[in-house]
Predict the 3D structure of the following.
Amino acid sequence: MSRHEPLSPPLQRHSLQHALLKTGDTIAAASVLQRSAAPLRWRQLGLIPLVLFLLGVALLEIWELDLKLGDLLYRLEGQQWALREHWITAGIIHNGGRLLSFGLLFITLLGWGLSWIRPSLRHWRPGLSYLISAVLCSVLLVNIAKRLTGLDCPWSLQRYGADRIYHSLFSLDPATASGGSCFPAGHASAGYAWVALYFLALHHFSDSSAPSRCYRHLALLPGLGLGLIFGISQQLRGAHFISHDLWTLAICWFSALILYRWRLWPKPTGPQFCYSRICAGTSGS
């Protein structure tokens, strides 16, 4: 090869990668060599969930499924909310579930903090930062909505032996709002907020291979599982209707999606995990 002949693209790429890694600049290498502007899958991640959400809201409202399911649970519990103060629903799932969610957030914060101390954890920092912000944003939005809607819990309604009049979200007259704070479901948000783990997995396992799809599906289970357990428990206690949980799931999902688009996309498309001293940005002794 002539001294003045330009390098072929593969050789240029190899030379650039070698130079960047030699200086220990892992972040620059990932930015220059591995970032891709592949289109975000809005249909699968945004449009389809939105259509399913709107369909669910319409069915719940048209068929009055909130009241029908609430009536069924109330009747099965002996015309009272017998599980309202039960040690499983109130103690383990409600109080213990809140502590579990706080514990998960603390572990995530701890991992994010360690990523500033240990160079080998640096590649986890953007994802952990996203996860923290997505969880906090979801919980915050749900709590703001609870203050704005003014809907009551089932256990506060005349229909179930209390003194408040039932209003759905779409029939509520602001002049008749009772000042309740039960919509959407706050406790369920402590579980559903962790659907952001799916987008974290999508960031690290973005290809269409079977193992990557499996990892993404597994990452979806904690958020959906905890949200369902927390939500169903609160329905059994008379704290929420099923529509409250549906809205909470939608808020958590779409806030996580928007933050994913803002914080993590476009994403690295090359290998994600590197534990060597060179890749970590440290020199050998």
